[in-house]
## 1
Amino acid sequence: MNTLVGAVLLTRTGGILGPIASILGWVMDRLFAITGVFGIENIGLCIILFTIVVKLLMLPLTIKQQKSSKLMAVMQPEIQAIQKKYKGKENDQKAMMMMQTETKAVYEKYGTSMTGGCLPLLIQLPIILALYRVIYNIPAYVNTVRGYYETVLANLGTGFAGNATFQALAEAQKMPVANYDYANNANAVIDLLYKFTSQQWDQLVGAFPAVGEAVTETGVHVVDAIANMQNFFGLNLAYTPLDIILNFFNGTGNVGFLTMIAALCIPLLAGGSQWYSTKLITANSPTANQKNGDDPSASMMKSMNVMMPLMSVFFCFTFASGIGIYWVAQSVLTIIQQVFINAHLKNVDIDDMVQKNIEKTNKKRAKKGLPPTRVGNVDEMMKKLQEKEEQEESRRMEKIAKSKAQVEESNRYYNENAKPGSLAAKANMVAKYNAKHEKGGKK
């Protein structure tokens, strides 16, 4: 049975995700070591504990983002009224500038900004991406897990890459020897080993008896230790749920009925739990209580709330079971967390929230030497903004009129006071001559 997961080398990711993934990997390594003290070394359990820790660390950002979402729900009718006011004037630059000014005034009224609700999401995004990297590639970031595979590597012996069985196993995982320098790249070997199924481990031990005899520091055979580490409720985390289900119906791989049911539950639970968690989260969104006809974004949001869980079901069928377990754990924890957050947000006073936002804004404005803002009526704020724009427009028109008058005065002076014999004097003579003859011709 071959896993469908594509090859991802153990080389750590770089860029902004690199340091974040390293920190998250260290956290998971500590969790693995802690559970090992109690005699439990299991990747599935560590993924669940890891998800809990990350959820708790990101809780402040989650609450902040959802408070912003609740505030947006209150602001939305005013923003939509502005958008309706300028509907059909998209090509009118002045109208679009006025719409932006009015929208900005609404945000100032509530003590927030147009980008305020996006900031927590932008902070969470690299954390989530780094989190997936760690789950996908556990031995690259969890040194305790990597140690097991290094023991296997040490017992393969020299020239293992030329062994026919090893080559066949690499080919089965779509990591052929021709494309990977296994002899000089330990990361590539460990990446391959991490994807092995139990049958493939048996084939490896048959070709390299020393691997089967190798033991860990606790005296457990390393192959058995890896099997126990990757086994979660009868599922080998290297398998995909689709492979397990197909093997059950094909009668291969010694897959039992309960194991097949467990494999089927992973994608179904991932999709169902994500759908319900999204429903709880969007209860505080601006589009939650709107009709589809009122705002196109509401219809789009509802469609996405259905499509995303369905996509999760599809992906979890074809990804390694470890990823599916993470998605299920993440969604279930989100549901539990969201129940408490929604209860908390029901007791949040919008006026208090706005006042606190204003106070924070004024502190920032004070540092910049700007006068404080206050909670005001949007109409009053717009009146002031319009008066300011009218004053600026008046000054601009005065400046243009003054410049035009200066040009006309300069031209008149230049024409009437030209020196005799100058080009200007000759031009005047020509102009007068033409004017005289034009009058004569009209008689």
## 2
Amino acid sequence: MRDERLYTLFEPLDSLPGIGPKLKPVLEGLIDGDTVWDLLLHLPERWLDRRVREQFDALQPGEIATVEGEVHAVKAPYSARSPHRVQLFDGTGFLTLTFFRADGRWLQAQFPVGARRIVSGRVDEFQGERQMTHPDYILDPARPERPPQVEPVYRLRAGLTNKRLHALMGAALGQIPQDLPEWGDRHLVSQRGWPDFRAALDGLHAPQGWDEEALARCRQRLAYDEALAREAAFALARASRSRRRAPAMPPARDAQRAIFRSLPFQPTGAQIRTVKEIGTDLASPSPMRRMLQGDVGAGKTLVAAIAAVQAIEAGYQVAFMAPTEVLARQQFTTLDQLLSAHGYTIAALTGRNKGSGREATLIGLADGSIQVVAGTHALFQQQVAFRNLGLIIVDEQHRFGVADRVKLAGKSDSPHMLVMSATPIPRTLAQSVHGDLDVSILDEKPAGRKPVETRALPDTRIEDVVQAVGRAVSRGERAFWICPKVDVEDDDSTAVGRHAALSDQLRIPVGLVHGRLKPPEKDAALEAFRSGETAVLVATTVVEVGVDVPEATIMVIERAEGFGLAQLHQLRGRVGRGDKPAYCLLLYRPPLGETARERLDTLRRTEDGFAIAEADFRLRGPGDVLGVRQAGTVDYRVIELPRDSDLVEIARSDAGVVVAADPDLSGDRGHALSLVRELFRPRGLPDPKS
């Protein structure tokens, strides 16, 4: 149950004065939430210094400034398109205030000649004179009202002004409980000079004076609170798992060596290392929760197959879950090739399975005769039962929600779980992102894999690229052609338009796949390309992961400047999987901006997915690197990575110590940690009251 001290923070938005049925949905869309606490977590993007300046002649064009002066003149516009002008004088110079389409009588009342006025707004320069157009504030210094010395500036949307939102924040601040305990490490809080939780929110939403260091300390305090909440949850999850019993699966070295000996290539050192890490986990009586992270083509499926052998030899079944029909069938084929010759039984279970074939698979899973099954969401349907499920392997784990993994885990008492991802994450962030998982990294590629030659070309050379694709097709090769959008009337770089154009130019069957197609249509288009029925596949980024076509040697990415680095790298990884030279052609629309140029140059220089992820993170931030914000992953509200990486590390150590000493959180510090965990509970997870 939620602590009653937090009730006021989790009240609905319309419990605040001034929020009615029209404003409420606007606010909910802006803050991505519906409570007072969600509103308070909508932190300012920046703060404006509204302190009154001493003199006009020190004003700089482009800055926001607040000044006081005497009204020297009010001038009417000389044409319908020109503004009213008000001249202020402060003894050091003039400042012209301009008002377009203003009511002259209102202006005369606001600015009587000889009166003093305080104005605040953006200073510009026009024909050598300082001017301020439509000031944000116009005040009479004889009255007590003043602009705020520091004004928070928020991200807004239509229907809201900054002043309105600032007023609502003031009301929300009044809802913060007075009697919350200190959940942070007191020595750390004192050492860093941090305010308490309530004061930190006050200091960001309603600062009393201009102090950039104080603003930074307030933000750091809340970032630490969020990190502490997350790390406490991770520590509790680990502690809970350590108390649960899972099947201990002894090492199966002889069987695993037989698989390795049958391979036509030598496993990499990284594969051997990660096999040992996973094997140690499987041999433990506590449930494994491990992330296997590897770049495109690093050999994750082989590592997963070796783990499966350890489970099978211990008498358990293995479920291999993939997000799409095509990927599940592809993984079935690979596992079948690796394991069937050694006497293991492999099956596939997807939406395509019907009738007697599906029934036979269900019977085999129930009686244990099928040892490994590769499938889609079909695996956790109610009618699917396992005799002895011991290991779950989830491929492209970011495509599944937490609830999906829980459903499949529910097919057994306490199975081990291995989740895999081909989306490189900077090594410095891996633990922050996957804090509840142990992480194994495949950072080598199998020997003999040819590099993909990457070239950046202006889209004025698109005809040359079409001809190159035609020549590749005539040699029996295949090509991907990626477009950024499905179909937009005023854009010629769309999947639908390019499909029509290439079909006409190449005069061969050209495939088309995009997100608007129904899953069976999408799977059919991908299967036609994989089988060779179509030699060119025009697609959006739905082919970013999981499509393995060794005959594909060309990857064309149109409007490449609009894609993120990690995404470009994933797309490039679709080619170069066979024994022929492969090319990635990045078509851009000139002129290129500085960031876009750096992005394309980075891709041309390296194929190291982790180096690319580091660069992408630097350019775009964590949400874009990962491509998706799964519940509990990087859905941070305050933390900014990598800026706050040190706070995450400190919070991890702090939370670990507390949970180790008080696993039930029954002591004073434990109770306090429960409060901050509830405040920063990842959105999308079940409400603790339910």
## 3
Amino acid sequence: MNTLEIEGKNIDEAIEKACREFNVPREKMNIEILSEGSKGFLGLVGTKKARIKASLLSLDVALEKDFEPPREIKEAAPARKVVEPKKTSAAAIEPGENAAGEAKELLQGILSRMGLKFPVSVEETAEAITLNIKGDGSGLLIGKGGQTLDAIQYILNKAVGKSGRDKRMIVLDTEEYRDRRDEYLIALAAKLGGKVKKTKKPLTINHMSARDRRVIHLALKSDEALTTRSRGEGAYRKIIILPSKKE
């Protein structure tokens, strides 16, 4: 798979160049920031360009001819629904008023310390509190495969969850990245599932985040001809799509 190092005046420009180079939207790419660049003296002398490493979303798909599932592998059981219910309008929430306000206040503090001044909106359902960061068109907060977004979301859930007042999941999103990513992964699952049913051979997708793996598992859960399992540890866990025993 081609990987390119691309430079720009800033991260935004470098990512835009990468999207044009590969002719795909941001959510279908892996972006690794190598250098954020810097302005030289008086903005002229010693200026360094921002530099990124870009490649298409790595699937690392491999057919396994003689695959035998490890004995201790258990099918992933998602703790919550991946596809969030349609969001409903929520009244204005003051920071510190409740869990949603506390989460928003904490997120704004994190963004401020990162030197980012993006507005944050809050939407609530019975299952989740969604914080949406507006204006991050560059994907800076998304990170490679959504890793930065997931990391901040983890911090918010841990910090707000300590109070025990509200058990709802905090979902962090920016510019509808989550929905676009889910749509892409669901389509990918259908495509690869069809390939497994056609070849009758297991297929492995390497290195996906826990959230992305859940999307794949749920997308194929209702297909009786297929079984999905996870294998590996930590960031190196893989998804295996294989024909069901009935097949």
